[in-house]
């Protein structure tokens, strides 16, 4: 991993933040963020113990990560709290929050609690060559349950959840290993019940 001038990495981060602001303003993520990746960039995030999202080119990033995955989230905001830069290895980590445009009855926004983030590797020419997002999947699911209960879950998100519930993988989703059998899941459930009730 090559070193880059600190000033170049800082400029890359400023361009990235502005592209995010423009994407949030227009609700068009592929248009503004797509050009920020190299042609052979890779973008991934984890979706639990047995599933990973992976896009292996700028084309897949635009169509899947910034397209299909962002359907229903066009009006969400992802404010960055801090970005840490390591120019010696050409990498950066940005910490952000996911905020829904919907408001609760008390006026507070629905947002994913905790902190999310992105780990970037710079590829030169003011483009990322690799990105991995991380977030609290449990908090994401809890927020979706709350939005659904309050009738504020976007229809596009409902459709995607419906497909996933039927075992249909969305574009870019990959299984990490063979899923556990129903018997194994049941055994694990009763083992946790025994631990909770009898501490053993």
Describe this entry's structure for a reader.
Strands 3-4-7-8-1-2-9 form a 7-stranded mixed sheet. The protein has a two-stranded antiparallel ribbon with strand order 5-6. It is globular and about 60 Å long. A hairpin with a 4-residue loop joins strand 3 and strand 4. The protein contains 6 helices and 9 strands, in the order ααββαββββββααβα. With 200 residues, the protein is α+β, with helices and mostly antiparallel strands.
Number of helices: 6
Helical residue percent band: 25-40%
- Which structural class matches the secondary elements? alpha+beta
> What's the number of extended β-strand segments?
9
Shape: globular
Short recap of the structure:
The chain is an alpha+beta fold and 200 residues long. The protein has helices at 6-26, 29-33, 58-65, 137-149, 155-165, 182-198; strands spanning 37-46, 51-55, 80-86, 91-96, 99-103, 109-111, 116-122, 128-134, 173-175.
């Amino acid at each position: 991993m090559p070193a880059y001038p600190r000033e170049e990495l800082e400029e890359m981060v400023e361009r990235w933040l502005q592209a995010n602001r423009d994407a949030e303003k227009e609700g068009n993520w592929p248009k503004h963020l797509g050009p920020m990746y190299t042609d052979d960039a890779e973008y991934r995030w984890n979706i639990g113990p047995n599933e990973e999202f992976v896009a292996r080119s700028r084309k897949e990033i635009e169509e899947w990560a910034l397209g299909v995955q962002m359907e229903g989230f066009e009006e969400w905001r992802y404010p960055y709290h801090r970005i840490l830069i390591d120019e010696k290895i050409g990498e950066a980590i940005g910490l952000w929050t996911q905020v829904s445009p919907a408001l609760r009855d008390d006026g507070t926004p629905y947002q994913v609690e905790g902190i999310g983030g992105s780990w970037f590797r710079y590829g030169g020419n003011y483009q990322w060559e690799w990105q991995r997002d991380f977030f609290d999947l449990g908090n994401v699911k809890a927020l979706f349950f709350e939005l659904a209960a309050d009738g504020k879950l976007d229809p596009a998100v409902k459709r995607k959840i419906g497909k996933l519930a039927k075992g249909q993988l969305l574009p870019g989703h990959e299984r990490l290993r063979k899923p556990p059998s129903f018997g194994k899941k049941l055994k694990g459930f009763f083992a946790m019940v025994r631990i909770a009730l009898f501490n053993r």
